[in-house]
Amino acid sequence: MSRRKNLTGTLALAVFTAALGSLQYGYSMGVINAPQKVIEKHYARSLGLWPERDTVLSENSTTDMSMPEAGQHPEVIMYWSLSVAIFSIGGMVSSFLVGFVGDLRGRVKGMLMVNVLAVAAGLLMGLCKMWKPHILVISGRAVMGFYCGLTSGLVPMYIGEIAPKAYRGALGTLHQLAIVVGILLSQVIGLDFLLGNDRMWPLLLGLSGAPSILQSLLLPLCPESPRYLYICQGKVQEASKSLRRLKGEYNQTADLEEMRREKEEGEKEEKISILSLIRSSVYRQQLFVALMMHLSQQFSGINAIFYYSTAIFHRAGVGLPVYATIGVGVINTIFTMVSVALVDRAGRRTLTLIGLGGMCCCAVAMTVGLRLQNDYSWMSYVSMSAIFLFVSFFEIGPGPIPWFIVAELFSQGPRPAAMALAGCCNWTCNFIIGMTFPYIQALLDSYVFLLFAALLFGFTVVTYLKVPETKGKSFEEIAAIFQKGFKKVPTNTRAGMELEQLKSSSDA
To answer: pTM higher than 0.90, yes or no?
Structure first.
């Protein structure tokens, strides 16, 4: 009964509202792919490389005959590549500011403030036909990337801090669920008979900013993080009131006592910046695990599937590859929901190991299927099945878990800096994969996924050896797992020893 009491309508509203930022992130990530050839044609027109009279041609003739030529101009290729890449660059830059924005006015007001960026980005892209489309789209994508870099850190941080311990994993996974729903939504409404056509594509891109408007209306109804109020602001009564709103009427003693101890330890140490966190020996193992899990998420090859699935399905002999890509989005969403149901039962470590191991096997199967499909027609089914299973295993563990486990691995003091570092690592790897995969594919051809299989095997081994189980543990208990030498040392003594190590590392 006490577990049920912790799931209140206010908590559901707060998690839903925060996850709207993740939905916007997913939509913005996927929206640029479907209308690529349409946008390339408008870039070519704006640059004077394509005749304006082409506007009156039928949709079919525009798509089938004109588009490939428009996209072959070097200038168009350059501007299109920049339109895709600038999103990740914006995220890389802003991810360093997650801690600053989160601590400046609080998690709720922080999310509210950055929504200005999302609305501005949506307007730039939605009104891009009024001036030079290539300039306005690239500007809008840069601003939207900057916004998404912030929200991809603020959302897991807020949800991780307000979620009851028993449901922290399931609620944390909703960040990834909202991302994949956003990707799927962008794929569906980006079909040419909906918004991905010559006339409606600016609206398709402009809708990237729509969730932020709804989120801005709902955020004032959401309680601030009790941990932020108590530990960062010292507002005990407001923290207690926020706990009551989030969890209902219950005995708050244990939660308030945990926050009190964390606040006392935090007051003894200097503010933990990104640089001091990197230098600190106290948090080295946690930081290694956090960054390794984000590396495993991006270097698993999943974005190669997301970005280039249509081309991969085309090579596998699928007649309508765009619909197969949407099928990947559906599988993506279904298995993220499976992860929501399992993560607080099976545990983070177990699901991550199952996911990475399964993806490794699928990458090998995908390679075999692509290599032998010319010799055996049925091998195309092997390739397609491997792609669907690859995505399924990803969403069971390696997809959602890295986003919220960082908030679990670190206490309140270093958490914002850790989230910033992990976010920057994720965005940087995303950018590297997006830019290099076509060249790697050209070099390795059918064997490209063997490279990802080798990386996945390595990540599986490291996860087995280094990643602890955090299911059902308090932040203090998780920190104690990494301090193996202090397991039998009283909490206050351990805190003092950690303080000394932190001071020496910050003085270095």
So the answer is: no
